[in-house]
Specification:
76% of the residues lie in helices and 0% in strands. The protein is mainly alpha-helical.
């Protein structure tokens, strides 16, 4: 496990170091992210869907992914009220404690822990139990924080997101068309660039501004998102006797991912608590290098 996680830490650290020495800038990450979203990630999706055998049990895991997010929203809202957060900070707190970085960090972590076979399940979980919830539920949370009462779901964002379009397209053609091996080989090579480029771009954007002033709120966000909620669902998997397997392992690790970068962008774009959003993402990434391996050990010792 440690040997596989080394590459995750290395790629991430290189991005942070290269920005510190001004070899790359934060603006450089936009090109990398665009390449991932429009080229590498769709290639990864097509390749993995070709080898994915869907089972009805996977549907229950996706349902649990949605339940995990709704549960996180409720728990974080109650915790924020207990901490006496104002409306703006409370909405930001809920956003950061509820939505996880299931793609840019979910893919590298799962690949390091479970191998390349896990990526196909990460993609399904990320698109249907992470991307869809944040796009559909975040307008309600952000509207609460803004106090406007104006709620608008951007359906265009959903249906035009390249990996999502590719995922639907891949499932539609799967029963009728087998992609030739020489094309799959090229798609595989493109897909392999997702992990290093994603981690490198995250490292480029890593900042710890105002963390000291927000340590209480950030700690509460990370505790709910990365310890409490995944622990509850790990216990649920144990006592409910849900079918174990690679997809279940992936689901637990995905639930344990740190706060989502997209969620922080939405918080900042809505004019809410940008310091809490940025500090939660930065701290969560670092903390994940300790918390995720612990959950991996628990998964294998307790139920699998």
């Amino acid at each position: 496990m440690l040997e596989n996680l080394f590459s995750v830490v290395l790629f991430f650290s290189l991005g942070y170091i290269f920005r510190k020495f001004k070899i790359f800038t934060e603006e450089s990450s936009k090109t990398l992210i665009d390449f991932i979203i429009y080229v590498a990630f769709p290639a990864l999706v097509i390749y993995n869907v070709q080898f994915l055998e869907l089972k009805i049990s996977y549907l229950w895991i996706l349902v649990l992914g949605w339940i995990a997010i709704i549960f996180s929203i409720i728990i974080s809202f109650l915790a924020g009220k207990f901490l006496k957060l104002n409306r703006i900070t409370l909405a930001s707190f809920v956003m950061m404690a509820s939505f996880g970085n299931t793609s840019f960090l979910g893919i590298p972590f799962n690949m390091a822990l479970f191998g390349e076979e896990s990526v196909k399940y990460v993609i399904i979980f990320d698109q249907f139990a992470s991307f869809l919830p944040v796009v559909i539920l975040s307008p309600f949370i952000l509207a609460y924080g803004q106090g406007t009462g104006s709620i608008k779901i951007d359906w265009k964002k959903i249906i035009t997101f390249p990996p999502f379009i590719t995922l639907i397209f891949s499932f539609l053609i799967k029963p009728f068309f087998h992609i030739p091996d020489f094309i799959l080989g090229s798609l595989h090579l493109l897909g392999l660039t997702v992990v290093p480029l994603a981690l490198f771009s995250v490292g480029l954007n890593l900042r710890f501004s105002n963390l000291k002033e927000r340590i209480r709120d950030v700690t509460a966000v990370l505790f709910i998102k990365m310890i409490f909620v995944p622990s509850i669902f790990l216990a649920f998997f144990i006592f409910a006797g849900i079918e174990s397997g690679l997809f279940t392992k992936v689901a637990i690790i995905e639930i344990a991912m740190p706060p989502m970068v997209l969620a922080s962008i939405l918080v900042i774009g809505a004019g809410l608590d940008k310091d809490l959003a940025a500090s939660s993402v930065a701290s969560g990434i670092i903390f994940s290098f300790f918390s995720v391996p612990i959950f991996y050990i628990l998964i294998n010792r307790l139920i699998f």
